[in-house]
Amino acid sequence: MIVVMKAHATPAEIEAVVERVQQAGFQAHKIVGVERTVVACVGEERGKEELAQLEFFSGVDSVLPVLKPYKLAARELHPDGSRVDVGGVEIGGKRLAVMAGPCAIESAAQMQGAAQAVKAAGAHMLRGGAFKPRTSPYSFQGMEHEGLLLLERAGREVGLPVVTEVMDPHDIERVAEHADMLQVGARNAQNFSLLRRLGKLNKPILLKRGMSTKLDEFLMAAEYILSGGNTRVVLCERGIRTFETATRNTLDLNAIPVLKQWTHLPVIVDPSHGTGAEALVIPMALAAVAAGADGLMIEVHPNPEKALSDGPQQLRPARFAELMGAVRRVAEAVERTV
Amino acid sequence: MIVVMKAHATPAEIEAVVERVQQAGFQAHKIVGVERTVVACVGEERGKEELAQLEFFSGVDSVLPVLKPYKLAARELHPDGSRVDVGGVEIGGKRLAVMAGPCAIESAAQMQGAAQAVKAAGAHMLRGGAFKPRTSPYSFQGMEHEGLLLLERAGREVGLPVVTEVMDPHDIERVAEHADMLQVGARNAQNFSLLRRLGKLNKPILLKRGMSTKLDEFLMAAEYILSGGNTRVVLCERGIRTFETATRNTLDLNAIPVLKQWTHLPVIVDPSHGTGAEALVIPMALAAVAAGADGLMIEVHPNPEKALSDGPQQLRPARFAELMGAVRRVAEAVERTV
Amino acid sequence: MIVVMKAHATPAEIEAVVERVQQAGFQAHKIVGVERTVVACVGEERGKEELAQLEFFSGVDSVLPVLKPYKLAARELHPDGSRVDVGGVEIGGKRLAVMAGPCAIESAAQMQGAAQAVKAAGAHMLRGGAFKPRTSPYSFQGMEHEGLLLLERAGREVGLPVVTEVMDPHDIERVAEHADMLQVGARNAQNFSLLRRLGKLNKPILLKRGMSTKLDEFLMAAEYILSGGNTRVVLCERGIRTFETATRNTLDLNAIPVLKQWTHLPVIVDPSHGTGAEALVIPMALAAVAAGADGLMIEVHPNPEKALSDGPQQLRPARFAELMGAVRRVAEAVERTV
Amino acid sequence: MIVVMKAHATPAEIEAVVERVQQAGFQAHKIVGVERTVVACVGEERGKEELAQLEFFSGVDSVLPVLKPYKLAARELHPDGSRVDVGGVEIGGKRLAVMAGPCAIESAAQMQGAAQAVKAAGAHMLRGGAFKPRTSPYSFQGMEHEGLLLLERAGREVGLPVVTEVMDPHDIERVAEHADMLQVGARNAQNFSLLRRLGKLNKPILLKRGMSTKLDEFLMAAEYILSGGNTRVVLCERGIRTFETATRNTLDLNAIPVLKQWTHLPVIVDPSHGTGAEALVIPMALAAVAAGADGLMIEVHPNPEKALSDGPQQLRPARFAELMGAVRRVAEAVERTV
Which domains does chain C carry? Predict the structure, then answer.
């Protein structure tokens, strides 16, 4: 940590900072510059966030952290990248993992249709939402536990592991009974009660980035799960909120190579939420693969024009098959398989 | 709802839209323009979000909603504004409501010191966090239930109602036993499991705006609580996330007069989180009052340089007393009292 | 244009709107809904922005435009996409156009080294900045006219057309004497004096998106040039400003397929500015190609560690050659050539 | 400047950094930490931005600047704040400066009506746009030089100095003949050609913040003018671009107290552009004054419903008089006068 003093800080003010830093167990190096003095603090910064209080000290201009705040998520821990197994599907290896299925689970027929279609096109996992976080209390909120059963059955019939969202910490056990992977949605990316409980679960977690989550905060959210003991975390970029209104969100593909530098966790991309428009899903899925994503999550619905939620961004089965073909070609170009 | 067709939409495409709209129980008015046709749909739009699927129809360019999506939060319901009583303190009337106290509850001595200081300076309610949503799992997470007891006792001793945050739906009952008002933090602004349960509670709720929550989404979050039957909701602007890094958040005071037009719910402002810097709290508190806020939430700590969280934005008691004096003068200038 | 009246608008207020709309030469269709009335206006909206004043009328809630504000940039004008020729290099066809070279022109040796390197690796155009828009007045501002001569000579020697930025409307003629294509930088994306004069020039223009320019505003900036008579405009996505600070900008690749739907103009991508970090340039260049970009602009410097501006985002020649190889493979996967 | 090395940087990599830093004339202090080494560089950082190239060195993680990049704008230069005289009106003193008038100059009658109205209500300066930066080339672009004459005459008749925007560097002289103060608009906030020429002018400048300009970049834009020799610069906050669409811009009032800490330059606020809606102008004007602004710029039009640009945000004369009364009361509450 570097403490930058104000231009006219007095020697007494500087000493007060040095003393406080030493009390916290750090070594303090005072460096006297032309215009100002800085105090460089040597020691383990993490868990010492009370040192941010130094900003409050008289004569202090700013406090600059030097270390990244996450440990278990850091790339250094597994320089070759970690791989997460979900019911036999490996995420993070050379082969891309494609998860596909409807936004919301609506009926047995819809789930069966979706499951057969995505399996036939080559998807590796089946998705579907039983608990739906909807902006409006008057919107369809999901089939809840009945939906979980439909999802589980549809996945089993076609032989695909299933992933679904959990919103309430107290639903975790029940969801985990039926799903192979639990998803944390963008609106819960900093729901720390939920994250902490998922850290105690023995199931892989798909953690979506929040709409306004910076990448270091995203890794701190993963760190909540990892520090609880659950090491099977997969990150998912799904678009951030910006001033641009032409698309529902701004898909931040820069995040892929940055996360690959910072963390060993696998990173997949959801171009359906990242764009909000069916016509944009294929080009952005290809872009994600070219940028180095370890997989994709794609919304596919047998009849998107009848969907109970997010119809405009769901692909028909034929379009999804087209997507898989194109993804295969781009994957090969970057030395991956599908 | 207005459905805008593409420039070269065929008559058959237009008819398909008209038919779908009528099936949903709307009247459809077709208006043929110079370049394109629009279909105006007359009827109750809320709860019919499946009509967003029209965007998926062939020949459709875009779908523009006409009605606001909230009902119970709408200004029309109580054109004079609603007032919320919290343990005898009225929020939303001519008198401003000032809530003050430390970011986190740390000890009995700290809470007593804070309570006496804010009471002496004229605050109307005591705040303090027992459950702390922290970005890092390695940071102080709050004193939890022990903290609730300290808060309740400190409030009772000085005769101030207390407000504190709840993060987990399953803590609601226990928190409600000790607090006069429950706060939903910015990170849970779209935690719908939490909001839905608070709709069933017989206690007033302080709902903070999320870091990237648009104002209409903010009112939809309130609508979750209101539609559950709990009508005592107070909104709190606390800063949004933007590109500007000079301050922790960008306090969006435009939100006050906009919300006053759109909703009957009282609106208060938290300049401590809205700026993240102690030196900015007083000017922004005054600005909030001048813009028409119904109250303020201010972080006050007896020894901010020893605080376990968010020290740099907490005021010392003497500065808080100064703030109250200045707020009083500005409040009078805009015909409010403190 | 759709005028939405307030819930309690009076018949007189509605009539006043209808009258104003008719005065402006539109037909007005009044549609009486359950909660509110809307007035649909049929006619040519563009150039009638005074109708935005209707928002000021008593009883009016909002005014929703129906038509896109641009004409000459609209896809409908050239449904197959337009192609721009720059000194024999076609942009917008099946073959990608790659422009490469240093951020700033620094010396004859640097330009020759860069020109030979990018030519050898397969680039189609040479870039280099003679006038540099720098945030600080104390930073290197470019070699100006001397730089233009070096750029022109280096391009001629290796047989590549050259592109360079123009910042001041009154430099246009001099820059046009030496460059094959003139670039408008992100900070001048809404410098309408500059755009208007470029509309009168007989040279192709590379128009970069501004840091906070929405896509429809981007096309309106192009429309300034097109409406002056210059139809040779190429758009360049180069990253937008968001809350994320892990990268210098957030490269918005969603913009590519959106622009391809909205406009016939070619679209290229600048991953050097879009990321600000050399290590991210290759993955994001590949992503841009996979998403459908018509070309790339890449910063290449013979000695980036000695560069006078933006060193951290410039590639060494060997890395650029690696990029070209990878781009070629991804281009083939999406049926393009390089 | 602080250079943070990567966790596994080799001694040779560290030495290379130290050497480069010393070559640039800095002292280098090497601090060996638990996980990583940092190199603290002592010396004048400004104008040495080539040291950002250190990020490119092998083994370097990041480079953190310590000094603010501006000098002449820095508060330290004039700790009591500077005052700018515009035709006898002082900006930056105890008395607020209110500039008012129409968005665009449209006719002699309109300008006279506006001038008399704003003078009668107590404004200190007259504003009006002769050159209008419009998003669409098809919109009214201003009366240009004819408009300047109307503005000058209207100001002279009522005895108010006038301020107007200049967009093209080559119009500066002509505009300066007729105006007492020249305004740089938000879209030109980083038009460095324009800023540099204004640095040579002997007239006060009103510099508006750009839509996505960070506060330190805003001060660097001012530094361009100051470093040219023109010390009479007034800053104007006018709203930034964020995800919120309820208002045209997000007025960032946090900027006022931050700028007051960082710079000696006076700061005024434009709530008309900052909100885009007439009904929000008064509350936000009051908020700006309460937050410490040195003045206001308000759009006033005799007949806003007939305005040729930005009608919805312009006040009628009667509303402006109401604003002035309310501003006077809030100003007194914060010990300012009007």
Answer: 2-64 (3.30.70.1140), 75-333 (3.20.20.70)
